[in-house]
User: Which sequence fits this backbone?
């Protein structure tokens, strides 16, 4: 078993990570983001993009965007846009390390809720998110293409953890 605390690092995503991130995205059949989409994402001032590196090898990533509140009445929110771990390293705690790091960064950015959408049939990811405190907020009919499928919108309220 991998001794994660010894060799796993969570780092900010760099341009040099994009090629590997694309491979991880493809092998997991995630919504398609092109190289240039990641370049744009990395350069957005309000993006939070992290990678998990095992012995300096990128094995997982989360890209997300901060939605910054313009009024004092509401706090900021964070939306996870893509999240994936290399197939041969799944179920080793890497996804957990990534999500925990994102939660710490979110709290530092005065985020009240983290939002994400997941395919209705992706029960594994839904169960992972539920085990990390996310709950189903609502469902978006026929949101995905290839194949057509509903999106489940999930939310983690940071005040509740
Ligand atoms: C969802 C995903 C990101 C989770 O990443 P992961 O690295 O497998 O996550 P973890 O290893 O931390 O946790 C997965 C399971 O392994 C178990 N686990 C964690 N560490 C473990 C260890 N050392 N030994 C055995 N099992 C372990 C956890 O209990 C967890 O169970 P749960 O899912 O019921 O909570 C990953 O499955 C993935 O990339 N899926 C494909 C892409 C995808 O669906 N992305 C989400 C789109 S919204």
Assistant:
């Amino acid at each position: 078993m991998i001794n994660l605390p010894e060799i796993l690092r969570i780092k900010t995503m760099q341009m040099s990570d994009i090629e590997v991130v694309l491979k991880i995205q493809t092998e997991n059949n995630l919504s398609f983001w092109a190289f240039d989409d990641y370049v744009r994402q990395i350069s957005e001032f309000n993006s939070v993009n992290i990678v998990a590196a095992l012995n300096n090898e990128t094995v997982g990533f989360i890209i997300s965007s901060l939605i910054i509140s313009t009024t004092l009445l509401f706090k900021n929110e964070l939306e996870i846009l893509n999240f994936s771990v290399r197939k041969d390293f799944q179920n080793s705690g890497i996804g957990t390390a990534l999500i925990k790091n994102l939660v710490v960064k979110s709290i530092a950015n005065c985020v009240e809720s983290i939002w994400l959408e997941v395919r209705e049939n992706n029960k594994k990811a839904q169960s992972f998110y539920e085990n990390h405190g996310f709950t189903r907020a609502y469902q978006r009919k026929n949101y995905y293409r290839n194949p057509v499928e509903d999106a489940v919108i999930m939310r983690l309220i940071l005040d509740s953890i």
Strands lie at 8-12, 47-54, 57-67, 76-85, 111-119, 135-144, 149-157. The chain is about 30% helix and 40% strand.
